[in-house]
Amino acid sequence: MVQHILRDEYDAIRDYKKASQYYKHLAVLVGSLKMRGSKSNVLEMAEFYDKSKSRR
User: Fold this and answer.
1) Which of 17, 19, 44, 55 is most buried as measured by Cβ atoms within 10 A of its Cβ?
2) What's the rounded Cα separation, in Å, for the pair 9 and 23?
3) Count of alpha carbons within 13 angstroms of residue 26, beta-carbon side
4) CB 15, CB 21: distance < 8 Å
């Protein structure tokens, strides 16, 4: 997958250094989005637990 992304970026801009920089930025953004999703899921689960606990 990494090779495909880098190849596509290189094909678009014809500059290996810039393609590599773009890939690094993309990796950071994807990681950040995954962390946000995980935090959101944890908060939703905690809220559900609190609601179900208070019903007892």
Assistant:
1) 19
2) 8
3) 11
4) no
Q: Is 15 left (phi over 0), alpha (psi -120 to 50) or beta?
A: beta
- The structure tokens listed for 20 are 């590599």
pLDDT, tens only, 12-50: 777 778 777 888 888 888 889 888 888 888 888 888 888
Helix, strand counts (H, E) of the chain = 2, 0
Choice between 53 and 49, residue whose per-residue pLDDT is larger:
49
* Contacts for 25 with CB less than 8 Å, ≥ 6 apart: none
pTM above 0.70, yes or no: no
Nearest to 24 by CA among 5, 39, 37: 5
